[in-house]
Amino acid sequence: MRRPAMEVFMSLPNHGKIIVHKLNEMQRNQAWLAAKCASTRATINNIIMGKQSPSLNMAFRISIALDMPIEKIFADLMK
Fold first, then answer.
1. C-alpha separations of 11 from 2, 6, 69 in Å
2. Residue 1's pLDDT is what?
3. Do 31 and 41 meet the contact criterion of CB atoms below 8 Å apart?
4. Cα(first)–Cα(last) distance of the chain, in Å?
5. What one-character DSSP code corresponds to residue 76?
6. Any idea what the Cα angle at residue 74 is, between residues 7 and 58, rounded to 5°?
7. pLDDT at residue number 38
8. pLDDT tens digits, residue range 14-32?
9. What is the model's pLDDT at position 77?
10. pLDDT at 41
11. Quick one: pLDDT at residue 47?
12. Burial of 5 by CB count in 10 Å (0-12 exposed, 13-18 middle, 19+ buried)?
């Protein structure tokens, strides 16, 4: 049984929430972000869900694609 979308969103790490919010604001999806980052949708999904930490290179590519400072997106990973 699938969990409701809001429950899934609330369980995301902060960087995942920021990425999902920005993608929604831009009316884009994970496949678009994966293409912009020369990656796969599965990798983007794993980063959003907190199952995988992005490499520094990937973090920069995500920040450029979303037009946001890297430290704003990934502040929770910089502790």
1. 14, 9, 23
2. 63
3. yes
4. 35
5. G
6. 105
7. 98
8. 999 999 999 999 999 999 9
9. 86
10. 98
11. 97
12. exposed
For 38-57, letters b (16+ CB in 10 Å) and e give: ebeeebbbebbeeeeebeee
The distance of Cα 44 from the centroid of its chain, to the nearest Å, equals: 6
Could you tell me if 32 and 43 are in contact, meaning their C-beta atoms sit under 8 angstroms apart?
Answer: no
Gap between the Cα atoms of 44 and 16, Å rounded: 10
Q: What is the predicted pLDDT for the residue at 60?
A: 97
Tokens 């899934």 correspond to what residue?
8
pLDDT under 50: residue ranges of the chain: none
51-56 contact pairs (CB < 8 A, 24+):
53/77
